[in-house]
Design the sequence.
């Protein structure tokens, strides 16, 4: 049996994925590393990332920066700032591919990539994050595959309530209530 520790060391690892608004406030974030053990540490990291990158022009292509021994790849679109963080020994191209896959999947799922639309469809964005990375390991970077899996999750109203998003569960509950009242 292969040594899992060796496998994990050779596998690309993501520390976090951040989606912040144009003021540096959280829209959707997911941490896969214990480098920031408390909420305050996470918020401080997000603020320092935003402060360091806010004056750059990362609207057409992804940019790369180093902060606290972490490589951060980022891209801005309208009033949303997308960030992917890896360790200082990670491959920047892999981080950039994860960022592009996340951005493109969000663009495919939302009619307009902006803060309002992102907040209205937060469940889809969080599902995207779950499809891209699990426990820091990259699962998928193809935006079409990610968006397809997320779209199939959001259309599966027959799934048990424990496997549905909050929006889906509320819609299912509303549908059951309507049926019971019409009987």
Sequence:
């Amino acid at each position: 049996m292969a040594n899992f520790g060796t496998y994990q060391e050779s596998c690309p690892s993501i520390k976090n994925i951040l989606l912040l608004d144009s003021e540096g406030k959280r829209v959707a974030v997911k941490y896969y590393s214990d480098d920031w053990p408390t909420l305050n540490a996470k918020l401080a990291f997000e603020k320092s990332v935003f402060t360091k990158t806010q004056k750059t022009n990362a609207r057409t292509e992804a940019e790369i920066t180093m902060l606290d021994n972490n490589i951060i790849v980022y891209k801005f679109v309208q009033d949303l700032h997308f960030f992917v963080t890896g360790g200082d020994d990670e491959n920047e191209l892999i981080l950039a591919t994860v960022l592009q896959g996340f951005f493109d999947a969000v663009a495919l799922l939302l009619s307009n990539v902006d803060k309002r639309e992102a907040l209205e469809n937060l469940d889809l964005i969080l599902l995207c994050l779950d499809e891209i990375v699990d426990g820091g390991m990259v699962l998928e970077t193809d935006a079409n595959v990610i968006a397809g899996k997320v779209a199939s999750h959001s259309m599966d109203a027959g799934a048990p309530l424990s496997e549905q998003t909050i929006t889906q569960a509320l819609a299912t509950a509303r549908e059951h209530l309507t049926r019971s009242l019409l009987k």
Remarks:
- The beta strands are 16-21, 26-31, 63-67, 70-77, 80-87, 133-134, 137-138.
- The longest strand covers residues 70-77.
